[in-house]
Every structure is written in structure tokens, then in C-alpha cells.
Specification:
The longest helix has 20 residues, at 314-333. Helix content is 35%, strand content 25%. It is of the alpha/beta class. The strands form two sheets. It has a nine-stranded mixed beta sheet. It has a six-stranded parallel beta sheet with strand order 3-2-1-4-5-6, with helices on both faces.
Length: 340
């Protein structure tokens, strides 16, 4: 099968890891780069051996034959860039969050659906090796009916040093990491029927919230607490790992630091470690996240090639964005929001 040719739109912090992730797979070739600052596109093109670089997206589309585009730019331009591709019948992979708000994301999804053009979200968090292994163990049904769980992403990592623009966001942690963690919660436990959210701005040097706690009632009947924070100094914090504690009628499962998964039953504890794949291009501080880029890309590429459906379509991601917007509604009104 011939490789699918694509363009990467946006050459900021995450783009080099996204491109490196694609290079780990057969079947996809980046043939062009776009950035509004041409020198940034040129620098990344030189690093990855990509000669076609642009600061004019119309010109890129006119000159390149593309099978899809990979948008790795800020969410404020996701709609415009996506619609430019859709007008030309080109499928789109878009970074999360799909859009700055739910309504815009829903409009993008409708436009792609009406044009019969695929729109996929690069939602790689759920593809982390420890979380996939946790889900596999859950599906073995070794702990009985799940009645309570906690999903915990809390650390003091200086995220603003690499991405200073995050300081200026009026809505920060729920839009930035919440889209990841709430999507993972859906992946593990299904859909929610109600939620109650509290937010905090601990760091007074930023505009948005840097901590949030969400209590979810799931359709299964389980209660799931989701905790996220960039303001937590904790004994076992390990950016950017997610910890999970699941309680069932017969036993519990815990995903702890460094991918250790413990299943505790009446008979005792069994433990296994799920470690991410090592890639020399990955930043050691982001190891499990960068490794998951490859697995997410593999899933999306398979869908683009006509194989199994992608997990993180726009339609699926809208359910996550709906949770995010309802979290903000709940936090603003200090009320429980029922999800129809």
C-alpha cells in the first residue's frame, strides 16, 4: 500500500514530537509544513528533511497533493484550517481541544459530516501504555461491579515554561488537561449522567483555573472523582502520569507511579508494570505521553487507510467537550449538572 501524503499545519512545541511519531510508522509521509512564521517552518523542515515549507496555506493546498492534514496549531485556528481542508475534500487530524468551545467543535463536525470528509482528534492520552493495560485488566472483570473510582492528574510541573501562552487563557486546566483526563475517564468508565465541578486558581500569576475536581455519576451507577492540578506538591507526583484507583464489589485495581498496576483481592495482591515504549526522540519528562503519540497515530492512520474505525473521531470527542463545558457551568453556578 502506498504511503499517504500529508501536511503538518503548525510547527510549534508539539509538532516535532508529532512528526517523530509519524516517522515510527509505515504508511504515512509528511510532504509539507506550514507556519505563519516561515523561519519556524524552515527550521523544522531542515530537521526532518521536508523541503516544501509555507507561510501561505492557500498556496500549500494549491501545490500539494494531500491525503490528509495534521493540524498542530492553537485551537483558535482549528476551525478555519479544518474548513479550508474540508472544502478541498481532504481529511483532517486535529489536535485537542478540537475548538475553543463546544459550539464551534460541533459546527466543525457537522461541516465534515455533510462533506463526507473525515475529522479525527489527536487524543493520545488514552493511548498511554499504562492506561491501555489498566483497561485490559478492567475488561477481565476480576473485581466485580465497579462502584467507585478516582482519576488523578495532580503535579507541580512548571508547564508555563514550555508553553507560556497558557498563562493567558481565561479557561485553562479543564480545557488543556481536562480534555485529556475526561476523555480517558470516558474510555475507562463510559458516559456520565451528571457532574459537579469545583475549580481553583492557586497560581495568581495566571488568568485561568489551575486546579479542578469533578464528581461524575456514570451511567453504570459508579461514582468517579476526577482530580487535576498543576498546583499540587505531592510525595508521589510524577508528571505527566495519571493515577487511577478503582473499587469493585470483590476487589480493587490501582494504577500507581511508573505504570505499576496492583489488583487487590481477598487472596492478596498481584502486581504488574506497564512501561511505555522508549523512543530516542522523546523528551524524558514527557515519556509516557510522547510514546502514546505513536499508538494514537497508528489508530488514526488505520482509519484513513480504510481499516478499523478510529477511536477518537470528532463525534466521539464532542462528548468529552460536552463534559468540559458542563464542568464550567457547574463551577460557575456551584450546582450539579444533569447530562441528557
Amino acid at each position: 500500500m502506498a504511503s499517504l501524503k500529508f501536511a503538518t499545519i503548525g510547527t510549534g512545541f508539539w509538532s516535532r514530537f508529532q512528526l517523530a511519531g509519524w516517522k515510527e510508522l509505515e504508511g504515512a509521509e509528511c510532504v509539507a509544513l506550514y507556519n505563519r512564521t516561515l523561519s519556524k517552518a524552515e527550521a523544522l523542515g531542515q530537521e526532518f528533511g521536508i523541503e516544501a515549507v509555507y507561510d501561505d496555506l492557500e498556496k500549500l493546498f494549491a501545490e500539494q497533493e494531500l491525503d490528509f492534514v495534521d493540524i498542530v496549531a492553537g485551537e483558535s485556528v482549528h476551525e478555519r484550517f479544518t474548513l479550508m481542508a474540508v472544502e478541498r475534500g481532504i481529511p483532517v487530524i486535529c489536535q485537542k481541544p478540537l475548538a475553543p468551545d463546544y459550539e464551534t467543535a460541533a459546527s466543525m463536525a457537522r461541516a465534515c459530516q455533510e462533506a463526507n470528509v473525515g475529522l479525527y482528534v489527536h487524543e493520545n492520552w488514552r493511548w498511554q501504555r499504562p492506561l491501555r493495560e489498566l483497561k485490559r485488566i478492567m475488561d477481565e472483570n476480576r473485581i466485580g461491579r465497579i462502584w467507585r473510582a478516582r482519576v488523578i492528574y495532580c503535579c507541580s510541573f512548571p508547564v508555563f515554561e514550555n508553553q507560556p501562552f497558557l498563562k493567558e487563557l481565561e479557561r485553562f486546566i479543564l480545557m488543556d488537561i481536562g480534555t485529556h483526563v475526561l476523555d480517558t475517564t470516558r474510555f475507562l468508565f463510559g458516559e456520565a449522567t451528571s457532574l459537579h465541578c469545583h475549580t481553583h486558581r492557586v497560581n495568581q500569576g495566571i488568568k485561568g483555573e489551575d486546579a479542578a475536581t469533578v464528581m461524575l455519576k456514570m451511567a453504570s451507577g459508579a461514582t468517579v472523582s476526577v482530580e487535576m492540578s498543576y498546583a499540587s506538591r505531592l510525595l508521589d507526583e510524577r508528571f505527566p502520569q495519571t493515577y487511577v484507583v478503582i473499587e469493585g464489589e470483590d476487589a480493587s485495581i490501582e494504577l500507581r507511579k511508573d505504570g505499576w498496576i496492583h489488583v487487590t483481592t481477598r487472596e492478596g495482591v498481584s502486581s504488574t508494570q506497564a512501561t511505555p515504549e522508549y523512543y530516542p526522540w522523546a523528551d524524558a519528562r514527557y515519556d509516557c505521553v510522547h510514546a502514546s503519540i505513536v499508538d494514537c497515530n497508528r489508530n488514526l492512520l488505520g482509519a484513513l487507510q480504510g481499516g478499523a474505525p478510529a477511536e477518537t473521531t470528532a463525534e466521539d470527542n464532542l462528548k468529552t467537550l460536552d463534559l468540559v463545558r458542563r464542568c464550567y457551568e457547574s463551577a460557575a453556578s456551584d450546582s450539579t449538572i444533569v447530562i441528557e
